[in-house]
Specification:
With about 400 residues, this protein is of the alpha/beta class. It has 11 helices and 20 strands. The chain has helices at about 10-15, 75-90, 125-130, 130-145, 155-160, 205-215, 230-235, 250-260, 275-285, 310-325, 345-355, and strands at about 1-5, 20, 25-30, 35-40, 45-50, 60-65, 95-100, 110-115, 120-125, 145-150, 165-170, 175-180, 185-190, 220-225, 240-245, 270-275, 290-295, 325-335, 360-370, 385-390. Strands 16-15-14-17-18-20-19 form a 7-stranded mixed β-sheet, sandwiched between helices. Strands 2-6-5-4-1-3 form a 6-stranded mixed β-sheet. It binds S-adenosyl-L-homocysteine.
């Protein structure tokens, strides 16, 4: 068994069970891509078993903090069974569920979503790549399912020196799937959609949006960064008369329109706008349009804290425009999925946007990712998605 030794004082985050070991923390030792190493402190005390990533800044990721634990097929079976079992206890109103959420489930770099009878996995690190076959078998065994599609095409693979891969890993067949989320039917293509096909993390916020649309009697909705129209379907279900989905992806908008029909709503209540959100918000402002509710769910502007400043300006700008475009008493449901923007900073950005817009509001709710995307108490990076529901005064 190979081992690596940390520099003096670099053991503290591991002692707090934070699973990442950065390149600069390592005094000596190396291993092959994905190989399991024993990690010791400068004093030679055992800290964890970890997967080595020779090409990544995050040079190793902890599998286990238990010196007696062996990292073998049984280890992956245990971790996967435990993650699947906890999902069965969580309140998830859907047959589409995140089963494995990386570090939060003790499996750094592994993302697994279930869409009906199909599993979709992303192997993001050298460690998960090395154990891919074992992980695939354990996933089928733990779920009783037969189909597993690989979506290892995220850019993070590049940082690990791994090529992008997509295709069936187990089973075969069509990649088009219909899921049930709350009372709604939604479709996706596991081979083509963003991430593994759909944004499962916003499930509970979509439900919340349907409820507030109904409660506040919202008539007109602008759903910005709509993707395949999850929030638009929610708005229609809540009774909105006029819903506009704005996105720069034509295929996503085509699916949004299909979702309106699939759920039995009159197509005349929905408009799909293939456009840049920034330009669209500015145009509506010039035209003097207003909306009763606006959703802002942009892509990750700040993947890491290093991008936080520029991202903060981008978030502030769309929130300023959104607040201005709201009718008095209107609702803004605004999100950031950037790991580099912590919740308190996001709140400050939205506060600044309100000041610039000359708009005040009540914060009705603070929301996060659905519970199948858990955050553990030792891994603050896990808190990436945050949202504020604001009532304009
Ligand atoms: N709210 C969605 C998820 C949004 S993901 C849901 O509930 O499923 C972010 C979306 O923003 C993607 O669909 C992407 O195509 C879109 N996007 C990114 N930049 C954009 C821009 N400048 N203008 C319009 N859409 C954009």
């Amino acid at each position: 068994m190979k081992s690596i030794r940390l520099r003096a004082g670099k053991e503290r985050s591991l002692q707090r069970r934070h699973p990442w070991i950065f390149q600069g923390s390592i005094e000596k030792g190396r291993a092959d891509a994905g190989e399991t190493v024993r990690v010791d402190s400068a004093e030679g005390d055992f800290l964890c078993w970890a997967a080595f990533s020779p090409e990544s800044q995050i040079r190793a990721r902890a599998w286990s903090f238990d010196a007696a634990e062996r990292i073998d097929a049984a280890f992956f079976q245990r971790r996967i069974e435990s993650a699947v079992a906890v999902r069965a206890r969580l309140p998830i109103a859907s047959d589409a569920v995140r089963l494995i959420h990386g570090e939060s489930d003790g499996l750094p770099g592994l993302i697994v979503d279930r869409y009906g009878d199909t599993l979709v996995a992303q192997f993001g690190t050298a460690g998960t790549e090395r154990w891919k076959e074992v992980i695939a078998d354990a996933l089928l065994a733990a779920t009783g399912l037969a189909r597993l599609y690989e979506r290892s095409d995220a850019s993070v693979r590049g940082l690990e020196g791994l090529p992008e891969v997509r295709g069936w890993l187990r089973g075969e067949g069509g990649t088009e799937i219909v899921i049930q989320e709350h009372e709604w039917r939604l479709s996706l293509d596991v081979a083509e959609g963003h991430k593994t096909g759909y944004y499962l993390d916003q499930r509970d916020s979509r439900k919340k949006f349907a409820e507030v649309v109904r409660h506040y009697g919202v008539k007109s909705v602008l759903n910005c960064f709509s993707y395949t129209g999850g929030f638009s379907v929610a708005a229609l279900a809540g009774g909105a008369e006029e819903v506009i989905s704005v996105d720069s992806s034509g295929p996503a908008l085509a699916r949004a329109c299909a979702h309106v029909a699939l759920n039995g709503f009159d197509a005349a209540r929905h408009t799909a706008l293939d456009a840049d959100v920034n330009q669209t918000l500015r145009r509506y402002l010039q035209e003097g349009r207003t909306f009763d509710a606006i959703v802002l769910d942009p892509p990750k502007f700040a993947p890491t804290a290093a991008h936080a400043e520029r991202a903060a300006r981008a978030y502030k700008d769309i929130n300023r425009l959104g607040l201005k475009l709201l009718a008095p008493g209107g609702l803004l449901f605004t999100f950031s999925c950037s790991g580099g923007i912590p919740p308190d900073l996001f709140h400050k950005i939205v506060a600044g946007a309100g000041l610039d817009a000359g708009v005040d509001g009540f914060i009705l709710d603070r929301v996060g990712a659905a519970p199948d995307h858990p955050q553990t108490i030792n891994f603050p990076e896990g808190e990436y998605l945050k949202g504020l529901l604001i009532l304009k005064r």
